[in-house]
Amino acid sequence: MALFDLHKPEECILRGTSWIFGPEEPYERYGDVDNVVFPCGYTVRPDGDTLYLYYGGADTCVALATASIRKLLEWLDANGKPAAKTIE
Fold first, then answer.
1. CA angle 70, 13, 35 (to 5 degrees)
2. pTM here?
């Protein structure tokens, strides 16, 4: 997971140090392509905090994961490292 600057989206502020989304369930682990999950799109609920992430699993199904944006940002704050600055 990574956090980018709102006004300069080419600048990464924080980058997570580990994966937060990966294949765990049987329908994600076994299929046409084993051990694969890939995001397809997302929506944010009217509460402004609930994230719906639509994703493919093992190239055989589409699924939905939900998360709290606030909790994701808290995780990134605790587990992220400042991104390396690029030289212009």
1. 70
2. 0.81
